[in-house]
Write a structure and sequence with these properties.
The protein is α+β, with helices and mostly antiparallel strands and 458 residues long. The protein is built from 14 helices and 15 strands.
Length: 458
């Protein structure tokens, strides 16, 4: 066991009379912003290893899987520097850059370039992130082409994304050059081609229903979305102990399907404004029994019964044959329990799940919001009907009778909420209401200019 741990983790354990110091795998986490992440093992607070060492452990594990896969071993042991850089990549800075390409109102030019496929934000990010700069532009472009080829192998294993270094290994070049300053673009191209050959062979074997090849591909691409946490800790021998993990993690308001398809972006963007949702990416097959519970603490927000549930790793509907042991939905929480998850194959798309929650305001706020919108639209109809096609003219009393109740009632909805969720779910209704109010006042002004409103008449 000691030799195996040393080979796998590169850190030999030390044993005492009743305790052992070991590098222990704690769990896997999505590559998103996290705060207050703490680990407690056997009652003691522990700290995870560095990001670089974490990547090295994952690279060694991937190499062991590749050696067990029936593919031609194309120098897989030479891929460790590239694999370490790929698995170490932190997408936080890249996500900030990509957000500028997803905001049509703030950055219309960048958004149009991204939608028209006229630019690749990943290439621009990589060129800026390489400290020494790109020395050979031609070879760098070849690296880009090979990286694009590698990304095509992800289909059928998990959802495509634009910030995964496993799917687009060009993103790992800055980290690779920092770890190995002597490397050139040509050296990186050789490593990328070697990786492409390995994954292509695994893809062909997987098409022939080879489980080892499927597991290799799944592990490689999943490491682009998540990282496994390891910690050096002291554990008791011959007795049970608990591992406790606490964290605060960002939720995703936008659908993960937005990132690649223009049609999906437009469809999900519209649906998420009309019926807001949040998503969370969770591990769901790392124990004998698995239980996930999503709860809303904001008293102004509730979960919608329809539209709240789980999806598989490709963000597709879960088939009826994969239903959990128990699943509960209420207005305050969503829970899912399953004792079969740990028995599924390692390459199963049910190993990790997307939890999607439909968000709604409380019933009172929901009815008030849509009621004010309907009332404002009705006021617009009255102004148009009476001002343009009805009476010869409107009096100020008529206009006040139409405008005052609507404007006063609608102003209540425009009050800002104090919570992020509250503001998010009201954003579409507030925008629609504001549009109707401006249209109403614009029509009244137009009628006044045209002389259809007589001031002082009763």
């Amino acid at each position: 066991m000691s030799a195996f741990l040393h080979e796998q983790f590169g850190d030999p354990p030390t044993f005492g009379p009743d305790r052992a110091t070991i590098l222990l795998p704690i769990g896997d986490f999505p590559k998103v912003s996290q705060v207050d992440l703490t680990f407690t093992v056997a009652g003691e607070r522990v700290h995870r290893v560095s990001r670089k060492e974490n990547g090295e452990i994952q690279a060694r594990y991937f190499r062991r899987l590749a050696e067990r896969t029936p593919v031609r071993q194309c120098g897989v042991n030479r891929l460790d520097p590239l694999l370490t850089a790929i698995f170490t990549f932190d997408p936080t800075a890249l996500k900030g850059e990509l957000n500028n390409y997803k905001r049509p109102f703030r950055h219309p030019l960048l958004w149009w370039q991204k939608m028209g496929r006229k630019t690749n934000p990943g290439i621009k990010y990589v060129k800026k992130a390489i400290d020494r700069g790109v020395r050979d532009e031609t070879v760098f472009n070849h690296c880009h082409q090979v990286a694009e080829d590698i990304g095509s192998f992800i289909e059928g294993y998990m959802l495509s994304t634009d910030h995964s270094a496993a799917e687009y290994p060009l993103l790992a070049l800055p980290e690779l050059f920092r770890n190995h300053p002597h490397m050139t673009e040509r050296d990186a191209l050789k490593l990328l081609r070697r990786l492409r050959l390995l994954l292509r062979q695994a893809k062909n074997r997987a098409a022939a229903d080879n489980d080892a090849a499927k597991s290799l591909l799944y592990t490689y691409f999943s490491y682009g979305r998540r990282w496994e946490a390891f910690a050096r800790c002291e554990i008791p021998l011959n007795e049970h102990f608990l591992i406790e993990v606490r964290e605060k993690r960002e939720v995703l308001f936008n659908s993960p399907k937005e990132e690649r398809s223009r049609l999906a972006w437009l469809g999900t963007w519209f649906c998420d404004r009309i019926a807001p949702r949040v998503r969370q990416y969770v591990a769901f097959a790392d124990a004998e029994s698995n239980h996930v519970n999503i709860r809303v603490d904001d008293t102004s927000v509730q979960l919608g019964f329809w539209g709240t549930g789980a999806r598989d790793e490709t963000y597709s509907q879960i088939p009826s044959t994969e239903r959990p042991d128990a699943e509960h939905r209420t207005r305050e929480y969503y829970s899912r329990y399953d004792s079969k998850a740990a028995r599924r194959r390692p390459d199963s798309r049910m190993q990790r799940l997307w939890i999607e929650c439909r968000l709604l305001p409380t019933w009172m706020r929901l009815f008030m919001g849509w009621g004010f919108i309907v009332a404002t639209w009705s006021a617009i109809y009255l102004v148009v009907r009476l001002g343009f096609a009805g009476c010869e003219h409107l009096t100020t009393s008529d206009v006040l009778a139409i405008l005052f109740p609507v404007t006063f009632a609608s102003s209540l909805l425009l009050v800002q909420d104090t919570t992020t969720l509250g503001r998010h779910i009201k954003r579409a209704k507030q925008s629609l209401l504001l549009f109707f109010l401006l249209a109403l006042w614009g029509l009244v002004f137009a009628l006044y200019v045209m002389g259809r409103i007589k001031v002082g008449l009763h």
